Amino acid sequence: MFLCRMKTVGDALIKFDEVLKSIYDKPEINAIKYLAISEVTALSKAQLRAYASTEFSAVQAQKLKKILRALQTGKPIQYILGDTEFYGLPFKVTPAVLIPRPETEELVEWIISIAKQRNELETILDIGTGSGCIPITLKTYLPSAKVSAVDVSTRALNIARQNAQLNDVEVDFIKTDILKQSGITLRNTHYSIIVSNPPYVTEGEKSEMHGNVLNHEPHLALFVTDTDPLIFYNAIANFALQNLKENGLLFFEINENLGKETVNLLKDKGFKNIQLRQDLRGKDRMIGAELTQ
């Protein structure tokens, strides 16, 4: 019965709506179903809409059935397919790394814009790199920059290295724990830009999270305690004080509920020209600051 109802593209579009309506809202379902069917058929979203009567082969129908069953468990479509897109670039993703988010694209766009205005060779460090989406994208759009990235997870670094190869860029990936700075060894200690999208979701915010994130994405990259929610920002800011060049820049993606607190942390440490920016949804989501004497 399941396969009979997915003989054509039109059948599949309807079936995805029926099966996923209890898990996702309508915009998310639309994004998921076109992504899944495009992956199986190699047809674009516009083609799928135009040729809804296109019939699936038996192999294609079986693949869609497998994808839909996995989606019913709450597993994100990006993990099911094994890849995603970030800032127009392809990235492999597994449950070892967070799925790149649109708000992180906005942070990257901000950094690229500022870097292109500066007349200097940028040396960039990304802290807590995960899939490598931030440093790889920065290297792609700022090809003259020297880009490095660190993470505490060996599995995440393996994915990041694969993504650098996939996008044909050179990024120096290093395993280290930013919370244990006495043990950090880097090949460069004077950066013009340091950026981080560290863990920032508090334990108390878990109940507000969608199950597909809570049950499938790596908690190591997501959560901090309620008692010390800025632990990574504090550590990274301290690191930046010692490793940023004069007039170097520090960028963070942040918890939307802790914007003022993060700004005050940076002020207390002596950073200047601090900017708190909202994302396209109007939420406090990113901070830029400058280290000046």
From TrEMBL:
Keyword Transferase set for record: yes
Give every Methyltransferase small domain span.
Answer: 120-207
> What keyword terms does UniProt attach to this protein?
Methyltransferase, S-adenosyl-L-methionine, Transferase
Please tell me where S-adenosyl-L-methionine binds in this chain. Answer: G128, T129, G130, S131, G132, D151, N197
What would be one Pfam family of this protein?
A: PrmC_N
Could you give a single Gene Ontology term from the biological process aspect? methylation
Q: Which GO terms describe its molecular function?
A: nucleic acid binding; peptide chain release factor N(5)-glutamine methyltransferase activity
Q: Which reaction is catalysed here?
A: L-glutaminyl-[peptide chain release factor] + S-adenosyl-L-methionine = N(5)-methyl-L-glutaminyl-[peptide chain release factor] + S-adenosyl-L-homocysteine + H(+)
Q: Pinpoint the Release factor glutamine methyltransferase N-terminal domain residues.
A: 12-82
The family database entries (PROSITE patterns) matched by this protein are listed as:
N6_MTASE
> What function does this protein fulfil?
Methylates the class 1 translation termination release factors RF1/PrfA and RF2/PrfB on the glutamine residue of the universally conserved GGQ motif.
Q: Please give the family membership noted in the entry.
A: Belongs to the protein N5-glutamine methyltransferase family. PrmC subfamily.
The UniProt entry, under PANTHER family, shows: HEMK METHYLTRANSFERASE, MTRF1L RELEASE FACTOR GLUTAMINE METHYLTRANSFERASE
Protein name, UniProt field: Release factor glutamine methyltransferase
Q: Which organism is it from?
A: Mucilaginibacter gracilis
What phylogenetic lineage does the species belong to?
Bacteria, Pseudomonadati, Bacteroidota, Sphingobacteriia, Sphingobacteriales
